[in-house]
Amino acid sequence: MSHDERYCTAPVHFDAVVVDGHCDTLLDCLRSGRTLRERSSSGHLDLPRMKEGGVDCQFFACYIEGSYKPDRGLKRALQMIDRFHTEIRAAGDMAVFATNYAKIMSAVESGKAAAVLTIEGGECLDTDVSNVRIMKQLGVLAIGLTWNERNMIADGVGEERTGGRLTNFGVEVVQEMNRSGIIVDVSHLSEAGFWDVMEVSQKPIIASHSNAKAVCNHRRNLTDEQLIALAKNGGVTGMNFAKDFVAQEDADLAGVIRHIEHICALIGPDHTGLGSDFDGIGEAPRGLEDVTKMPAITKELERLGYCEENIRKILGGNFLRVIKEVVC
Ligand SMILES: [Zn+2]
What we know:
This protein has 14 helices and nine strands. By secondary structure, the protein is α/β, with parallel strands linked by helices. Strands 1, 2, 3, 4, 5 and 6 form a six-stranded parallel sheet that branches.
């Protein structure tokens, strides 16, 4: 097989278990009326396009919109969870609701998409830590503690000025998530809150959709110090395709790769993955217009000389490691 053919077919990509740690497709389905089951000309992601793009496991976030905060977050989370189940049921043989490592792997082995349920916004817990256990019973695999604003758990990056850390309730939430086997997601959390989580969490955490601040200075990205701490914690950060988080100007595939390169150079290949934020980012970068373009990342990593083992880690192995370790 010639070099060129190898790049065209990207066999590593379609053989690897590819995991995407974040999308907002559920909200897009709710708003537009499109479904996961049908290939759509709108939005970035659906099950047929995931198949084409070789994405095996997708985290589907239930994003709590501002109009539901602070007091109707739990209600909205339940509505979103219901929509998730409706979509997965309607998908028939195409997708499986996967709540842990074993279920993800068995879905992938049977050629089905592993659909993972996550929540973006700790408002889903209201003010009661017992809701962590209820979310576990509902099959939630990860919860983002905040969005950009303040909530009962912590401050988001939009509240950076106050320097707020975790509240007492926030500490209880992280401890209960550790005990219950739900992954703590620090994307959107303020830096002070991040450092608090690092002290409190006994388990690896994720930043499901955050890039490197050293490459693109945006408040949603992680500093080198944060990335080093993330590595020590055993966690993973998923590369976000939002143009503003990728590059100051002219965001494209190469820009996303620059974040991966920086993180691998800084903390090695074990702590980065994909967290596209598809359907939550407006226009996607050039070369990554929708989920069908995912193989382009693999081709680029191959071209840059990444070995197969490291490519598999970045494509999904790192997220799978954390899931295996944290989620019972
Ligand atoms: Zn987000």
